[in-house]
Amino acid sequence: MDMETLHKKPPYGIIAILFFGAFVAFLNNTLLNVALPTIMAEFEVKPAVVQWLTNGYMLVNGILIPASAFFIQKFTNRRLFLTAMSLFTLGTALAAYAPHFGVLVAGRMIQASGAGIMMPLLMNVMLAAFPVERRGAAMGMFGLVIMAAPAIGPTLSGWIVEHYNWRTLFEIILPFAALALILGFFKLKNITPNRDIKVDVFSLILSTIGFGALLYGFSTAGDKGWGALEVYGTIIIGVVAIVIFILRQLRMKDPMLEFRIYKYPMFALSSVIMVVVSASMFSGMILTPIYVQTVRGISPFHAGLLMLPGAILMAIMSPITGRLFDKYGARVLATIGLTITVVTTYLFHLLDVDTGFYHIMLLYTVRMMGMSLVMMPVMTNGLNQLPMSANPHGTAMNNTLQQISGAIGTAVLVTVMNNKLETKGTELAEAAAAAGKSLQDPVVMKELAQQATLGGITYAFLVSTFIAAVALILALFMKRVTPPKAERAGAKELKAQTE
Predict the structure, then answer these.
(1) Is residue 457 predicted with pLDDT exceeding 60?
(2) How many Å apart are CA 22 and CA 10, to the nearest integer?
(3) Which residues cross the membrane (predicted)?
(4) pLDDT tens for residues 91-116?
(5) How many CA atoms lie less than 13 Å away from 400 in the CB half-sphere?
């Protein structure tokens, strides 16, 4: 199918099937966190071991996403979707009926090998199917799917775990995964251009070691501490492997991941903004539940309900943001969104032990609304500057950076929180002892622990405010990419490929 025909009549049926598959994969990823304590009890494993259900999933994603640019160019979108969905369905079945913890981890990692390719694949089909001036609306619908899953995931899983067995989380996903696979088999057609490129095995090994080690190192830093060999050792190995990987890609004619796309200034700027925003966004997602459950003593289910309106609003805003992007461009939206994010993150820094439930809910909801005006417009504006053949590399690069910056942001902010918590705890204990209070009294100790935790969380939010402010300053330098330029570049490249 040629580009002109494709742009005049986008294949909505094909896109709907891809959307459905991606939604199922993303919903699954958000369901499991609430169930971890129940799984720990059933299989009699420690927290450090049960974390492999999320760490293992993330590691496979981190390894596969950088390689997705190669897969998308080498294989047809139909073949990729069917392979990814088959792996995801197999992994879900294995996890649902796992007799041992090891089988459950294996099931999750097989799931991840399927889910890891879904987002880059869907984004590339969207970029191919819609002309530049209509991409905002299209990517907005894509955002709706991506945001809707995290919106309903934690609350739904909280309710399921309270009333049913944790295996139900996988059993309800299984028929939907199978349905997506069947629909894909009968209805999916090929619309993305392919090239006969060969895989560079050494690049694949370097990418796997580099991105895998980096993600693992930063993910375990919050739990093990930066002084642990397991943390700084894997980070060093990851950095060295990535440096060698980048140098190798720059020398190759057909690189696995094209780093030369950073010569496009708006793509480079959008990447930097996304890294900073991802680091700040994860602070709200990690620190808010800790504050709500530890300081305020709200149950996990109600904590999920508190965050639900924000996640739903973010999902609803996504298609609206897409249309606004087509009309006004990314700079206006990103500036407004990041201003809201900076203000609300600072207000989170002012929380205390008695802040009301609905006050927290309102703050979180408005913060998420601000975020919804930033991510998709910034990403789409950057991708719009790339020629058609570079789209797989652009989407792979963006998704990889989001994973890594999310892990780094979380690790740094959890460390900031823990350090402040310890110093605040020592100060409060000394002040209590000076005031004649007994440090053996459980009531006094509980109050001190609550105050120290609050101090750590609010300080981490203050640091997050400055991170968001950096993104706001960077957003002011964004320029709108003019559609004719991008279209001409894409058309020329496509013509050259087909001649």
Answers:
(1) yes
(2) 19
(3) 12-32, 52-72, 79-98, 110-130, 137-160, 172-189, 201-219, 225-247, 267-292, 298-320, 332-351, 357-379, 457-478
(4) 999 999 999 999 999 999 999 899 88
(5) 23
Residue 215's closest CA among 64, 108, 363? 64
CATH 1.20.1250.20 fits 1-195, yes or no: yes
Which superfamily, per CATH, for 260-499?
MFS general substrate transporter like domains (1.20.1250.20)
Instruction: Pull the structure tokens for residue 208.
Output: 């796997």
Same fold? 1-195, 260-499: yes
Structure tokens at 169: 């989380």
Q: Which residue has the tokens 């999920």?
A: 304
pTM (2 d.p.)? 0.76
For the chain, domain boundaries: 1-195, 199-253, 260-499
What 3-state class would DSSP assign to 252? Answer: coil
Phi/psi at 9 (5° precision): -135, 80
How far, CA to CA in Å, does 9 sit from each of 130, 344, 494? 9, 42, 19
pLDDT in tens, 262-271: 999 999 999 9
Q: In 3D, which of 479, 73, 15, 415 has the Cα closest to residue 231?
A: 415
Tell me the C-alpha to C-alpha distance, in Å, between residue 64 and each of 80, 207, 210, 432. 13, 9, 12, 52
CA distance 346 to 315: 23
